[in-house]
Design brief:
The complex is a heterodimer of chains A (about 1000) and B (about 425). By secondary structure, chain A is of the alpha/beta class. Chain A folds into 4 domains: about 325 residues, Alpha-Beta Barrel (TIM Barrel); about 100 residues, Quinohemoprotein amine dehydrogenase alpha subunit, domain 2 (Lipocalin, Beta Barrel), CATH 2.40.128; about 110 residues, Urease, subunit C, domain 1 (Roll); about 290 residues, TIM Barrel (Alpha-Beta Barrel), CATH 3.20.20.140. Chain A is built from 28 helices and 43 strands. In chain A, the strands form 7 sheets. In chain A, strands 1, 2, 3, 4, 5, 15, 16 and 17 form an 8-stranded mixed beta sheet that branches. In chain A, a hairpin with a 5-residue loop joins β1 and β2. The longest helix of chain A has 27 residues. Chain B is α/β, with parallel strands linked by helices. Chain B folds into 2 domains: about 130 residues, Urease, subunit C, domain 1, CATH 2.30.40; about 280 residues, TIM Barrel (Alpha-Beta Barrel). Chain B is built from 13 helices and 16 strands. In chain B, the strands form 2 sheets. In chain B, strands 1, 2, 3, 4, 5, 14, 15 and 16 form an 8-stranded mixed beta sheet that branches. Chain B has an 8-stranded mixed beta sheet with strand order 6-7-8-9-10-11-12-13, sandwiched between helices. In chain B, β6, α2 and β7 form a beta-alpha-beta unit. The longest helix of chain B has 26 residues. Chain B is globular, with a radius of gyration of 23 Å. In chain B, about 50% of the residues are buried. Classes of the chains: A alpha/beta (about 1000), B alpha/beta (about 425).
């Protein structure tokens, strides 16, 4: 009865798949339609179910049946796979298989390309190309298919993978006969990224520009969805349609991964994130994205660090990343994050297997590895009913391997894809590899080690365990074997001829010495190769070798091992610089609790368990605040491709791992405004951060802070120094006024359009067109509505005057003039307008527009009633803000308190944070710095820096960290040298000679955002 | 043609702008003998007299006394009471481009090195030295009174000279002409890319350098009828009349440079840059190498470095007995901050007087002018200044009086002039 049902089922399937092609073959039609039966194999039906002695029946590229007791129909081709394994073929979700090679268009740094020059009704930006469908571009390519096939892959998700907004990807199998049959899902997914790619258009020139472009595309697409627009944009049209497909987002590092997920969240898209394999840095945050991740395993080779000079120049961060990368998958798995594995990044596919096994050795379960190569990728493109397992009715994509795929001696023998058979070696040849006992008439106790590949074995004789071995020349044909070898202790060349009992792996025959005398020999299979030398001791050693260091936060020098805790502290008997009306308080105590300052006074109660710090002879100040900093932004902080880039946000690209954060903490700075650079007239939106070293990018941000935006005037924005964007308006100071005026005029109109629309009743709205949300004008509108505040890079008095007049005419006040080196010439006007100033202490004469800079500037402006802060604009100065105050004190003749206020309460005022920071006052944030002396003295150093009551820097701890850095470096370097000496593959060490992070306004990073 | 005319107009307008503040008039020679009494006298060699006296005549120190109050005042034309104020030897900046470059951002104003030729021992910094540079008065106003101007770049960058900072022209300014040559030691691992290739590049450059020195030494052994001005310019290295100032940073470069100079018969060498000098103090001492340390305010080179190492290096060298000085190598306009870089080292292990020595006597010794400069000793130049407070700390550095070779110099500068100018504006406004 059972058989009959099976038979019917069998008929059903064949009738469905019969003759599905519109092509005519140039020969007698081949309609073999044979059933193939694979018997006696260990079959992985899916990543969970294993049949120890199973049978797989397939026909016409489909699975008919898998099971341990399957009746083989008559007429079936039977392949006996005794001892061999069957796995569902793997699926790679990141591939460009069958795609034409893309070329980068012409572009030059000197001349900005402003918009898409193609003349079609497509989108304005060449990096936005949702209209590109991979299926239109796809061509069979048996050469590139082969490298996948021989490594067990059957299906890939392929696409052009270029640009910020990409089109659809195609899911194809790797058969080499017919593109028509290859396609499993024509539009399987769509994709975005933060990388401009081959576009020759100048915008975006930074990562934050890419983010703005992506966000604007979502908004444009929403606007485009309305009826009645007299406007056609095919890109937006397709973008809207594509939103139904699974959405992937490509990140080239874990920070980008988190950034992309946030963009997805904003627009209601849960992306499947294509990672870079460094997710171990922030597993906790990655878990919170709820995203599935496509992860590469192209682990870096050990660095060549035998030369101590080279070793010395490799950063600990790079060493730790190298060591932890193989643990990435097991850490993702442990955190229950869904992931698929991709071969992306592997130039040599053979490395893929080494790395996969390395990942398993590093804690990933075999089942999870298999899942990530079969089930998960299939599921992520909604194809798990068709591919990724070997259940009845599914595509018969599977490969046959000599043993378990996690065994390093494993060899893939055949790969079957969509009914096509790809043979890499002869399936009938048994695996003869292993350790043999070799005996001859004259010798015994020899070990014959047979290795190599199944079709082509190599052999070596070892007289005993520790001696060197002689390599033998082995020829195996059928079961005839010929061996030649030339051993030192024998006389000349010896020839062995014999036969091999393939079943029992028993070799025997006759040997001939050079003198013609003969002898009998035999070799008996003893054990598998892997088992060699694995004593308990060796195993333990192996395990120790693989044990990695912990992940630090951030995972580099001076990172924390644990997340910091808020402390309850009483600092006693200290000189308190309140930076409030009362000035300095001698021999006073300050209590902090729950991240706030809770008490200030002479005799504060010592609560039980409170940590007490004796402040005798020491000084306690508020954490210093840098109004103008460019640290901690990745992918460039100048979006210079347009004169107005108000849409970009530094907050989108904060890099919490930058060492400069720690340097500034060590100098007593606790908060900073991270500004857009000064390459263009209207820069971008600022990121206001506290320097919470070790936290993630979002945690750096100061919650509920007002919005700020960078403007710039003068030589930089008119591109005086040359070298880029020479065709960009403006090239004069007067031109700058026109750019700004134009922006405000447009911003005003933008606000009016929305106001008009918002005033409509909900019924009227149905027939009206909602205005397009424009991120650039939205930011300008916020300025006009006094919700966003300008910090303007400025030097000479004429332009300062101009901008104040312009602001007056649009009815708003400029918040801050930054740099403002000629502020002393117009301080009265600034005071009348209500602008603040953030200036350098003693920089001057490095270019023409700063020739008139004087160190008395801060004092003169202060005396004129302007709120004055001192800023760094440079990492060096940012770690010594107190010295800027000290210089103003020296040159200005202000009181010490007045001067020090310029790096504490005054910048807090300019940043609208003075209700929370900038002074020591009950209720304010516990952002404090303990100094060993007067903070205005060059002899004083910082002992401790607190932010929100957490001790982010301590001089004592710093010493301990330095020791840990040295130890960790030594440990990993030793491991790398061991790797190199053990014959592991190596690469040139990534040497970083000099720090590249002295960020100043005009730094234009030409990132190759491909 | 029109373009050329425009350029000239631009240049004129620019110069006019820069000339807004009047140039200071160099002081006339000392005619009256002067005695400063009751000041806190910092000799420069580590000694301090709490209430001492310094007398000088015709530009030379004639009296130094620990007992300021009881010193014999007769014989001095002018006696000034310095009670509570500090008296210091003039600070000396070494290996600076001040006077060779005006505005960093304007290429036209720079002459800090003739980059057209890599190997240019014949290039002379002194002939381009601008005694009217706007930076000079600002440096003087903080106590810097003497400098060694030196070219940069290339391999052998050219010769340096020691100058005093109050002169009508470089001829008058010079204290020691062509005192040394500057050698930019090749970088062993400079830049990015393949370290092995770079390594080879380093070896190649070293062998080039060796050829240059071997030739120069052979050339120096005799007088030649046919002169080679490059080789001629290197002669002094082999008889000790000129010092070779070698910029090398990494440990390996430092060791190679020292061994190279020994092997090539360079009589006097001084190391600057010297980032890794703290790693090889024994070696430096053994070879009697003098070291110039750069301003410490720069951040560590690598993420893994001790964040305070640059601040601590002076005290490590001090402890190990390596002769060193501190100089400003960052920019022209920061030379006025020289005393504070010494102060930074004081905050990190040096004593106050050791910090002072590092920018006075030690520099003079390293430059070979300690017979006339660097400390307040009878017979040396009366190049000294007075500050109301500790001159090494920013908050108390306040120079009220300064003499160069006994000449009382004008302490005004462009900044003070502009501040004064704009004071007029605010006198009319209610804020002042």
């Amino acid at each position: 009865m059972k058989k009959i049902i099976l038979y019917f089922f069998f008929l059903l399937i064949t009738s469905v798949v019969y003759g599905q092609s519109t092509y005519d073959d140039n020969k007698v039609h081949s309609n073999e339609n044979l059933v193939y039966a694979f018997i006696n194999a260990k079959i992985h039906v899916d990543y969970q179910i294993v049949l120890n002695n199973g049978t797989l029946l397939i026909k016409n590229g489909k699975v008919i049946k898998t099971g341990e007791e399957v009746v083989i129909p008559k007429g079936a081709v039977v392949l006996d796979l005794k001892g061999k394994y069957i796995y569902p073929s793997f699926i790679d979700l990141y591939s460009t298989y069958g795609m034409p090679k893309l070329k980068k268009g012409e572009s030059s740094r000197d001349n900005t390309v402003f918009s898409n020059p193609n003349g079609k009704a497509l989108g304005w930006n060449m990096a936005v190309k949702p209209e590109v469908d991979a299926i239109d571009l796809f061509e069979l390519n048996s050469d590139s298919a082969e490298k996948y096939l021989e490594n067990g892959f059957g299906v890939v998700l392929s696409g052009q993978r270029d640009g910020v907004v990409r089109g659809t990807n195609v899911l194809v199998d790797l058969n080499d006969k017919s593109a028509n049959k290859s396609v499993i899902i024509g539009k399987a997914s769509t994709e975005v990224s933060l990388y401009k790619g081959k576009s020759s258009q100048t915008y975006p020139s930074s990562k934050m520009g890419s983010i703005a472009l992506l966000r604007q595309t979502y908004l444009d697409a929403k606007w485009y969805n309305q009826k009645g627009l007299n406007y056609t944009d095919l890109s937006l049209e397709v973008f809207n349609k594509n939103r139904e497909y699974p959405k992937f987002a490509e990140a080239r590092g874990y920070l980008d991964l988190l950034r992309l997920d946030r963009i997805g969240d904003e627009f209601g898209d849960q992306y499947i994130l294509i990672g870079a394999g460094d997710e171990f840095n922030r597993i906790g945050e990655i878990k919170k994205t709820n995203a599935s991740i496509v992860v590469p395993i192209n682990f870096e080779d050990a660095f060549e660090v035998k030369d101590p000079m080279i070793a010395d120049m490799v950063d600990l961060g790079d060493l730790k990343a190298w060591e932890l990368a193989p643990y990435n998958l097991s850490m993702l798995d442990e955190a229950d994050i869904e992931f698929a594995i991709t071969t992306n990044g592997h130039k040599k596919m053979s490395k893929f297997w080494i790395h996969l096994r390395q990942a398993v050795k590093s804690g990933l379960s075999e089942q999870s590895a298999l899942k990530a190569l079969t089930y998960t990728p299939a599921k992520l493109v909604n194809a798990n009913e068709t591919i990724g397992a070997l259940r009845t009715g599914m595509q018969a994509n599977f490969f046959i391997s000599s043993t378990s795929i996690f065994d390093k001696e494993n060899q893939i023998i055949e790969n079957w894809v969509d009914g096509n058979r790809f043979q890499f070696s002869d399936i009938t040849i048994p695996d003869l590899r292993g350790i043999y006992d070799f005996k001859s008439d004259s010798k015994s106790n020899l070990r014959l080690v047979v290795s190599g590949s199944i079709g082509k074995v190599k052999a070596a004789v070892k007289p005993n365990k520790d001696s060197t071995s002689y390599t033998l020349n082995v020829t195996l044909r059928g079961n005839d074997i010929k061996i030649n070898y030339d051993a030192d202790d024998e006389q000349g060349l010896i020839k062995l001829v014999g036969t091999v009992d393939l079943e029992k792996r028993q070799w025997s025959g006759v040997g001939t010495k050079e003198d013609g005398s003969t002898f009998n020999w035999s070799a008996t299979y003893k054990k598998a190769l892997e088992e060699e030398d694995l004593s308990a001791e060796a195993l333990a050693k192996e395990k120790q070798k693989y044990k990695p260091g912990a992940v630090w936060f951030p995972n580099k020098s001076y990172g924390f091992k644990e997340i910091l805790k808020t402390e309850t502290v009483l600092i006693k008997n200290v000189t308190v610089w309140t930076c409030e009306e009362q000035g300095n308080l001698e021999k006073t105590s300050v209590k902090i609790k729950d991240g706030k300052i809770v008490a200030i006074g002479k005799d504060l109660k010592e609560d039980k368990g409170i940590k007490i710090i004796d402040g005798t002879g020491k000084h306690l100040t508020p954490g210093m605040i840098d109004e103008h900093s460019h640290i901690s932004a990745s992918g460039g902080f100048n979006e210079w491709a347009e004169s107005n880039s108000a849409e970009v946000r530094i907050g989108d690209v904060l890099d919490p791992d930058e060492i400069a954060i720690y340097y500034q903490l060590a100098g007593g700075t606790t908060a900073a405004q991270i500004l857009h650079g000064s390459a263009n007239c209207i820069g971008g939106q600022s990121g206001l951060i506290k320097l919470r070293w070790g936290s993630n990018a979002e945690e750096l941000k100061i919650k509920d802070a007002d919005g700020f935006i960078k403007f710039a005037l003068g030589e930089n924005v008119k591109k005086s120094s040359g070298g880029y964007a020479q065709n960009q308006f403006p090239r004069t100071r007067s031109g700058v006024e026109q750019v700004d005026k134009d922006a405000f005029t447009q911003g005003k109109e933008y606000l009016a359009a929305w106001e008009k629309y918002n005033a409509l009743s909900s019924k009227e709205k149905l027939n009206a067109i909602e205005p397009r949300r424009n991120l650039e004008l939205e930011a300008i509108g916020e300025i006009l509505e006094k919700k966003r505040f300008i910090t303007c890079h400025s030097y000479v008095q004429s332009e300062i005057n101009m901008l104040m007049h312009l602001a007056d005419s649009f009815g708003f006040t400029l918040n801050t003039f930054t740099h403002i080196l000629e502020g002393y010439k117009v301080a009265d006007k600034m005071q009348a307008h209500g602008a603040g100033a953030s200036t350098f202490s003693d920089w001057w004469a490095y270019k023409t527009e700063v020739m008139d800079a004087i160190p008395y500037n801060a004092k003169i402006m202060h005396k004129a009633g302007v709120v004055v802060a001192l800023n760094s604009d440079n990492d060096n100065e940012g770690s010594n803000l107190n010295l800027l105050a000290s210089k103003v004190y020296k040159y200005g003749g202000l009181t010490q308190v007045e001067a020090f206020n310029m790096v504490t309460i005054n910048p807090a005022k300019l940043l609208h944070l003075d209700h929370r920071m900038g002074s020591i006052k009950v209720g304010k944030d516990a952002d404090l710095v303990l100094w060993d002396g007067n903070p205005l003295s060059i002899y004083s150093t910082v002992l401790k820096t607190y932010i929100d009551g957490k001790c982010y820097y301590s001089k004592d701890e710093n010493g301990k960290k330095l020791n840990e850095i040295k130890k960790e470096r030594a440990r990993i370097i030793e491991k790398m040298i061991g790797e190199e000496e053990g014959g592991g593959s190596t690469k040139k060490a990534p040497v970083k000679k000099k720090r590249q992070t002295v960020h100043e306004c005009m730094d234009i990073e030409m990132h190759h955002l491909e | 043609m029109r373009k050329g005319l425009l350029l000239i107009l631009f240049a004129l307008a620019f110069l006019q702008g820069m000339a807004q503040a009047p140039m200071l008039v160099p002081a006339v020679d000392q005619t009256k003998s002067i005695l400063l009494i009751n000041g806190i006298v910092h000799i420069g060699n580590g000694t301090v007299y709490k209430s001492g006296a310094i007398g000088f005549d015709k530009g030379i120190i004639t009296l130094v006394s620990e007992q300021g109050a009881s010193v014999d005042q007769s014989g001095f034309d002018e006696v000034i009471d310095m009670a509570g104020q500090h008296v210091y030897p003039g600070l000396i900046e070494a290996q600076t481009i001040l006077g060779l470059e005006e505005v960093e951002g304007i290429g036209k104003t720079t002459n800090k090195g003739d980059y057209i030729i890599d190997h240019r021992p014949h290039y002379r910094a002194i002939t381009t030295y601008n005694t009217e540079s706007f930076f000079i008065p600002t440096a003087r106003a903080n106590g810097v009174l003497v400098m060694q101007i030196a070219p940069v770049g290339g391999l052998l960058s050219g010769s340096s000279s020691v100058v005093q900072l109050d002169a009508w022209n470089w001829d008058d300014a010079v204290i020691k002409m062509d005192d040394g040559l500057t050698l930019m030691w090749p970088s062993s691992y400079g830049g990015r890319g393949d370290p092995i290739k770079r390594r080879k590049g380093y070896d190649d450059k070293l062998s080039d350098l060796k050829n240059i020195f071997v030739n120069a030494k052979a050339y120096a052994e005799t007088d030649h009828r046919e002169k080679d001005i490059r080789l001629e310019a290197m002669k002094g290295l082999f008889d000790g009349s000129q010092t070779l100032f070698v910029k090398a940073s990494l440990l390996e470069e430092i060791k190679d440079a020292v061994n190279f100079c020994k092997a090539q018969g360079v009589v006097k060498m001084v190391l600057f840059g010297a980032r890794d000098s703290y790693m090889c103090t024994g070696f430096l001492k053994e070879n009697n190498i003098f070291v110039m340390l750069p301003s410490a305010i720069q951040l560590p080179n690598s993420e893994d470095d001790d964040i305070d190492m640059k601040f601590k290096t002076p005290s490590i060298l001090q402890e190990a007995g390596v002769k060193f000085c501190i100089h400003e190598d960052w920019s022209t306009y920061d030379v006025r901050n020289l005393p504070f870089w010494a102060g930074m080292a004081v905050g990190n292990g040096l004593t106050l007087e050791q910090g002072l020595t590092a920018i006075t006597l030690s520099v003079a010794e390293i430059l070979g002018v300690d017979d006339i400069l660097g400390s307040l000793v009878v017979g040396k130049h009366a190049t000294l200044f007075v500050s109301t407070g500790d001159a090494l700390d920013i908050k108390s550095n306040n120079v009220t009086l300064a003499y160069i070779q006994g000449r009382k110099i004008d302490l005004n500068d462009r900044h003070k002039a502009i501040a004064k100018q704009f004071k007029q504006k605010y006198l009319k406004t209610p804020q002042e």
